[in-house]
Amino acid sequence: MAFFLCFFVLFLASSATACDRCLHQSKASYFSKPSSLSSGACGYGSLALDLSRGQFAAGVASLFSNGAGCGACFQVRCKNQAICTKEGTKVVLTDLNPNNQTDFVLSTRAFTAMAQKGKSQQILKLGILDIEYKRVPCEYKKQNLAVRVEESSKKPDYLAIKFLFQGGQTEIVGADVAQVGSSQWNYLSRNHGAVWDTSRVPQGGLQLRFVVTSGYDGKWIWAKKVLPADWKNGVIYDTDVQITEIAQEGCSTCNDETW
């Protein structure tokens, strides 16, 4: 646990200068094949559709943040005023973009959503657009944070879970699991993207606690009853917790105006 707390302090220190809501200038391209949906580095697979209604994106390493950026929401708009709307569109980060030529690779639906009415094909023909973007809160008003038990889990020796519908402007940077009613916590490790796992699986029903950060703030959140004793692979369980925290900026100036 000492290692985890040390990691947590270091993470917060590194986040102190983050300007998540500030406006950034870059470029964006789009996925030409829908197969990218099932191969995202966050591990969402087809669930990316439920998270974003098809408005998803791959982000560069600084946005992906070794998986901590999975599920983050961004408002993106292109700068060509002749064919683009002022509002742009909102996307959910579901994948890593290894190509530093653009900060984002958007789904076709998200890419064309930046266009003015009747100009979707013009945007697609351009292929790469100059954009500006900023981090915005994710909103799942009727959906709590959920946990999916991955197919690779093997009771009673191995548990892998994936976090879904993470709201607010937050990142999950640590997670623990314990038997319901117990104070004996075992830490979960980030396997990849939004997937966490442990080979020290408590018996019985399971509760979770995790650390979320937003800007330079961080807090523990408890989900007191998450997985039943007979938890099953492939099933999504409601945590009965909603995350709505908004980032507190550490930068001195930041364009936080509503588009």
Structural class: alpha+beta
Instruction: Please tell me the overall pLDDT.
Output: 88
**Helical run tally:** 5
Order of helices and strands: HEHEHEEEHHEEEEEEEEE
- Strand tally is 14
Largest sheet geometry: 8 strands, antiparallel
* Share in β-strands: 25-35%
Q: Give me the side-by-side strand order of the main sheet.
A: 13-12-9-10-11-8-7-14
Radius of gyration: 19 Å
- Contiguous uncertain segments of 5+ residues: 1-17
Approximate helicity band: 10-25%
Straight-line N-to-C gap: 43 Å
Morphology call? elongated
Molecular structure report:
This protein is of the alpha+beta class and 259 residues long. 14% of the residues lie in helices and 34% in strands. The protein contains five helices and 14 strands. It has helices at 2-15, 48-52, 61-64, 108-113, 120-126; strands at residues 24-30, 56-59, 73-78, 89-96, 104-106, 129-136, 146-149, 159-164, 171-179, 186-192, 195-198, 206-214, 217-227, 236-238. The strands form two sheets. Strands 13-12-9-10-11-8-7-14 form an eight-stranded antiparallel beta sheet, with helices on one face. Strands 1-5-2-4-3-6 form a six-stranded mixed β-barrel. Residues 1-17 have low confidence and may be disordered.
